[in-house]
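Researcher: Quick test of sequence recovery. Tokens follow.
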């Protein structure tokens, strides 16, 4: 008898220029709210050395610790391995592959801003991530 295979886990890649703010928050929200039912990646076309401290603080306020995250460089392999690629201001730096699903979320860049300016960006990202989970047919964690 052939074993029953489980459905493939969808995967998402969040891309912004520095991978230090928006894409880090989005990846953290998707991992947290998706509770392991989505494979999550994030990367940047020109990654920074560290994640923006105001972003780390803003995420801590909602109970998500991203202090150990490190910005990663965008690779062709990461794009190819993802079902959906969500860009956030990386412009033409993101490789395009026919047949991939691309979304572009228009969000302010938190670079150079304090936590007060990051909070509304964080909250918009959470709304976008909840919408993405709904599109994928995955119920978000409470």
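Model:
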């Amino acid at each position: 008898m052939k074993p029953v295979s489980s459905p493939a886990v969808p995967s998402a890649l969040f891309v912004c220029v520095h991978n230090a703010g928006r894409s880090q928050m989005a990846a953290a929200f998707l991992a947290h709210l998706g509770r392991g039912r989505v494979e999550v990646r994030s990367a940047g076309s020109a990654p920074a050395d560290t994640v923006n401290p105001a972003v780390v603080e803003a995420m801590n306020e909602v109970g998500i610790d991203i202090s150990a995250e490190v910005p990663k460089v965008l690779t062709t392999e990461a794009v190819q391995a993802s079902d959906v690629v969500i860009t956030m201001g990386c412009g033409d730096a993101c490789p395009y592959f026919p047949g991939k699903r691309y979304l572009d979320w228009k969000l302010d860049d938190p670079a150079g801003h304090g936590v007060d300016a990051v909070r509304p960006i964080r909250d918009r990202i959470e709304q976008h991530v909840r919408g993405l989970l709904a599109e994928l047919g995955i119920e978000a964690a409470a």
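Confidence is low (pLDDT under 50) at residues 2-6.
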